[in-house]
Amino acid sequence: MRDKRKGRNPVTKSGLDLERIVFIGRTFEEYMVMFDLSIEELQGQKVLDCPAGACSFTAVGRQKGLDVTACDIAYYHQADALACKGKKDIEHVMEGMEKVKQDYVFNYFRDIDDLVRHRKRALDECAAGMKSDPEHYVPAELPVLPFEDDEFDLVLSAHFLFTYGDRLDQSFHLDVIRELLRVAKKEIRLFPLVDLSGKRYKHLDYMISGLEEQGYHVEEMRVPFEFQKNANAMMKIQKR
Asked: Taking Cα atoms as reference points, which of 162, 127, 158 lies closest to residue 49?
């Protein structure tokens, strides 16, 4: 087993300027539909959300008796500072939402005001969780995670890989997937499979072929959730 927690420096990590972090997250309920999950299948499982940002999946999940841990580079900062930054980020993003409304599907959310309410609730629940349960909010900078091999039964990763395909190169994507698989005992789930323009990530088929050649079972699955247009599928990668 390999433990990467040794030697970690939580103070001098690069890229930790708070102003460079966009701290916006999704609710527990959004996660359940994004990843097509049920409470029953999560019970008894050790779950990692990475990168978790301002999502409330860990906070609410732990309230429901689930064993969930959140991991993100943002957690090098204190909860109060992140909550303050998150409120500003929500306001900034929503100011321009009306202009790009046509790129989104308003089914899960009734309208922009409803979206704002969900984002603020996720932020509040996340900040509260960081204060009440700080040991389950682990700071780390991908593609290196401070966990042992096979430490989690299930790893979830939302709105990071593929989403920023124009900024994060193919090599980085592969490094992150390998690291998520290293710490996962059974499987990882990635959502969505499109970039910010709503187009399928251009290297996805190549990456799937490579993973299958390495012995992983890879499956693309439609999910009962779509907010960004065409962002309605996740990838499930299982260890055989």
From this structure: 158
